[in-house]
Amino acid sequence: MGRHTRYTLLRIKQALFLLTVPVLVFTITRVHAAPLSNRSISVNSSIAGAVTSHLFNFNIVSSNLLGSIQLEYCDNTPFVGAPCSVPAGLSLNGAAIGAQSGEVGFAKHPSSTANNIILTRVPDFALPQPSSYRIDNVINPSDVQRTIFVRVSTYSSNDASGPRIDEGAVVFSTARGISVGGYVPPYLTFCAAVSVAIDCTTTNGFSLNLGELSKNSPATATSEFSGATNDPTGYIVTVSGSTMTSGNNVIPPLAVNDTNKPGTSQFGMNLRANTAPVFGQDKTGVGTADPSPGYNSPNIFRYVSGEVLTSSPLSTDFNRFTVSYLVNVSSGQSPGVYNTTLTYIAIASF
């Protein structure tokens, strides 16, 4: 009876001993950088090998000390921290910060490389906000149609060392330049007739009838011409032809500027609106052509064959001019049918 009792107590002690074995539990926590939001890159020129500017925009999301921003160019993967393949021909060696906004005060860190530019400043507390950085004098990769990833990381340190605070990536591609060309032909548009549309789309009549010439009052008539050109040096308009004649009989042209003198044989013209007598019109249109001085005074008339009537010193839109013809005869003017043919010529240099 006693021996049975000792054996039972021993088993109870052993069971209690086994229940006191400790159990250990391990907890592992992994810290990740926050993703930069609203990331973008704008490339001023995507042509391979071009010297250009790259504009980075992103929102800083973490409230933390900010001392540096890393821009790492790779052509194999956008994942921050993964091995980076340097794009052929890319160079950031001469790159510089052209503009910055948001979190500012950055300069280029001396440890920057041909594919890795570090923006550095004295570490300061950063607020979540949009920020922008323009990097000038970037030499694009030399491969055409190449996709380039730029990994963007922010750090508390001023040299892109230590843990990342925020991170993300943007992407752009190099492209072959597209040549776009065109040809603007030189033009000179000119028309002369009794009446013309200001843009020379229509003309009407090529003959004027002065009727019966009298010593008591002048005979008058008008015709028109219009012109425009894209010649950088503009254009001129000349008139040539004889005065009015009937066989050997001549109505003298006004080689010297003169007024209307009924009873005196004279043939002349001007390009103005006149009041003595009342006829003619000033120029119209938005162009830059003007009458030459000899033909630009109201009530003053002149005619010398070959002279320049109007000119513009530069390319010009249309101007329409009215030519006012004045004819007077003396009492001794020989009878006959008097006429002349005048030729108007527009000349541009091109």
Describe, in plain words, how this protein is organized in 3D:
This protein is mainly beta and 350 residues long. It folds into 2 domains: 34-173, Immunoglobulin-like; 188-348, Immunoglobulin-like (Sandwich). It has 1 helix and 25 strands. Strands 1-10-9-4-7-6 form a 6-stranded mixed beta sheet, with no helix packed on it. Strands 11, 14, 18, 21 and 24 form a 5-stranded antiparallel beta sheet that branches. Strands 2-3-8-5 form a 4-stranded antiparallel beta sheet, with no helix packed on it. A hairpin with a 7-residue loop joins strand 6 (107-108) and strand 7 (116-126).
Summarize the entry for a quick read.
The protein is mainly beta and 350 residues long.
The N- and C-terminal alpha carbons lie at a distance of 138 Å
Estimated helix fraction = under 10%
Placed side by side, the strands forming the largest sheet appear as 1-10-9-4-7-6
Instruction: State the CATH topology of the largest domain.
Output: Immunoglobulin-like
CATH class categorisation of the largest domain: Mainly Beta
Main sheet makeup:
6 strands, mixed
What general outline do the C-alpha atoms trace? rod-shaped
Q: Count up the domains.
A: 2
List keywords for this structure.
350 residues, mainly beta, Immunoglobulin-like, 2 domains, 6-stranded mixed beta sheet, 5-stranded antiparallel beta sheet, 1 helix, disordered N terminus
